[in-house]
Write a structure and sequence with these properties.
Chain B: Keywords: Cell membrane, Membrane, Transmembrane, Transmembrane helix, Transport. The complex is a heterodimer. By secondary structure, chain A is mainly alpha-helical. Chain A has 11 helices and no strands. Chain A has a domain of 172 residues: MetI-like (MetI-like fold, Orthogonal Bundle). Chain A starts with a helix and ends with a helix. In chain B, a hairpin with a 6-residue loop joins β1 and β2. Chain B is mostly helical. Chain B is 74% helix and 1% strand. The relative contact order of chain B is 0.12. The chains are: A mainly alpha, B mainly alpha.
């Protein structure tokens, strides 16, 4: 497969696929500055009026605040639970070890709508009214696996010799964990946390079933799209999110390439 | 404290179960019971006058689903759609995964992977709205098509639109495991094949393809499962005649307020996935997730 033609064909194909993935996001940003409230092609004029309208919309900022609060809490809980699960599965040999990794993956292996209605009927069954907390519970359930996968992948690559050296030099298991294992896992924990945060922040599939009167930002947008209301403002909100998320991704890129050059490790 | 730690270290069984209790507790007390409740609810019914759930066991929901033409069509359409989306994404993703695994530099690869996440991180529904603008009758695609003199398409709010956008949304889920499988193939295997006279196409068919299969299957699990239960895409981009299981389930939970019927419908994708996972496991896909 080393020939020049295949090389160029693959490069071209990849570029095409990336265009397919990213072009719609560019469309959203362009239409955010569309003067008309009808989303036709080509756009008729440039205007900032929808940006101003979005800025004065209190519903949007309330939804944004709620989404951030939920994502933060869901991330903290899932990092704690996901890391412990990964630690135990990697370090211990026990009966049912395979089952643990299977159960953890289940919420993303099953269709999201199933996790959604399952949690919805669970809350209904036990008379738990839908609230901020039920949304967090839903998010943690599928965020655990994101952290778990990231952390366990890193732990499998860590040489056991470093841990043994630390223990030989007299450090106890807790000290070894804080001084050796944790620092070596820090980038995996950070990327796991970032992925979990982004997943929670953008989630609608499960949230639709676990939210009561609360509107997270993606739910607000989904509602607006379904009812066909506020569409020009939706453009502005999504554009803002795309730009912030792009910045976050570039930060991830910087973190990941920095770590790569410092440690000079090849996966 | 250190005394306790040392004792726990010696009794690894105890420390292991102590550590495992919180994460497993989450699943044992919340997620798994939720799935059980869902299963049980599927055998209940809703009183059509009061709208209250009646907790009497019956197979009515299932009998209704499988005896009605409408629901059989919806199930069939959903499975065909999931298969079509999966095949599309495997075709689109394989060359990209191959390029990332064996040709791109580490920096380019990381950049590509991160950019691939952007559509999923745009409020999830953001790109779907963009596709509505692109595929509309007076939209961007038709604008471009008519400007080169072709006749416009009419694919907005149809199965075509649903197919395109599902393929768009789930593509990264197929690229990632396919890449993981391709990246694991040692260079020496390809050299050995070349040394033994295998031309590049033959090496590809006989060495690379078989080793990539588990990764492709792993990706297809996500793609297939996500499409089977997807309700956002059909409810935002589908039209008459493009109802899928997902949005029918969603409508029964919300507007129709018939949770037992939604639960019974929900059993269908779970059974389909169980069959799919059974075969995927035999093909070694679980090592690639």
């Amino acid at each position: 497969m080393g020939s020049k033609i295949t090389h160029w064909a693959l490069r071209l194909w990849t570029l095409g696929v990336m265009f397919f993935l990213l072009a719609p996001l560019v469309v959203i940003i362009v239409y955010a500055f569309n003067e008309s409230n009808i989303q036709s092609f080509p756009i008729h004029g440039f205007s900032l009026k929808w940006v101003v309208a979005a800025w004065h919309n209190e519903e949007i900022f309330a939804a944004l605040g709620l989404s951030l609060k939920i994502a933060l809490l869901a991330t903290v809980i899932s990092v704690l639970l996901g890391t412990t699960a990964a630690f135990v599965v990697d370090r211990y040999r026990f009966f049912g070890r395979e089952t643990v990794s299977f159960i953890v993956v289940l919420p993303i292996a099953l269709p999201g709508v199933i996790t959604g209605i399952a949690l919805g009927s669970y809350f209904e069954f036990f008379d738990i009214s839908l609230s901020y907390w039920t949304i967090v519970i839903g998010h943690v359930t599928f965020c655990i696996v994101i952290v778990y996968n990231n952390v366990i992948a890193r732990m499998r690559r860590l040489p056991g010799s470093l841990r043994e050296a630390s223990m030989d030099l007299g450090a106890g298991p807790f000290r070894t964990f804080y001084r050796i294992t944790l620092p070596l896992m820090s980038t995996a924990l950070l990327s796991g946390a970032l992925l979990a945060f982004a997943l929670s922040f953008n989630e609608v599939i499960v949230t639709n079933f676990t939210a009561g009167a609360q509107n997270t930002l993606p739910l607000w947008i989904f509602g607006a799209l379904r009812l066909g209301q506020n569409l020009p403002v939706v453009n502005v909100v999504v554009s803002a999110v795309v730009i912030v998320m792009l910045a976050l991704l570039l930060l991830c890129y910087w973190l990941m390439t920095q770590a790569g050059t410092k440690q000079k490790e090849h996966p | 404290m250190s005394h306790l730690a040392a004792r726990l270290w010696r009794h690894r069984g105890i420390s292991g179960s102590l550590l495992l209790t919180p994460p497993m507790g989450w699943f044992v007390f919340i997620y798994l019971p939720a799935l059980v409740v869902l299963l049980i609810t599927a055998f209940w019914t809703v009183n059509s006058f009061t709208g209250v759930i009646e907790r009497d066991w019956s197979l009515d929901n299932f009998v209704y689903i499988f005896s009605s033409h409408t629901y059989r069509d919806i199930i069939l359409r959903t499975i065909v759609m999931a298969a079509a989306v999966t095949i599309t994404d495997v075709v689109l993703a394989f060359p990209v995964a191959y390029y990332c695994a064996r040709m791109a530099s580490a920096r380019i690869r990381i950049l590509l992977f991160l950019l691939m996440l952007l559509p999923l991180w745009s409020m999830f529904v953001g790109p779907m709205y963009a596709w509505r603008i692109i595929l509309a009758d007076q939209g961007i695609l038709n604008g471009l098509i008519t400007s080169v003199g072709l006749s416009p398409l009419s694919i907005s709010y149809s199965n075509w639109a649903v197919w395109i956008v599902f393929s768009y949304m789930w593509l990264p889920f197929v690229v990632a495991p396919t890449y993981a499988a391709l990246e694991r193939i040692p260079e020496s295997y390809l050299e050995a094949s070349g040394d033994l006279g295998g031309r590049s196409w033959r090496t590809f068919r006989k060495v690379i393809m078989p080793l990539a299969v588990p990764g492709v299957i792993a990706g297809s699990i996500f793609c297939f499962s996500l499409t089977l239960g997807g309700y956002i895409v059909p409810s935002l981009l589908g039209g008459p005649g493009s109802d899928l299981l997902g949005n029918v389930i969603f409508a029964n939970v919300g507007a129709a307020n018939n949770l037992p019927f939604a639960a019974a419908l929900g059993i269908v994708p779970v059974v389909v996935m169980a069959v799919y996972l059974f075969f995927a496991r035999r093909l070694g896909a679980f090592d690639m997730m």
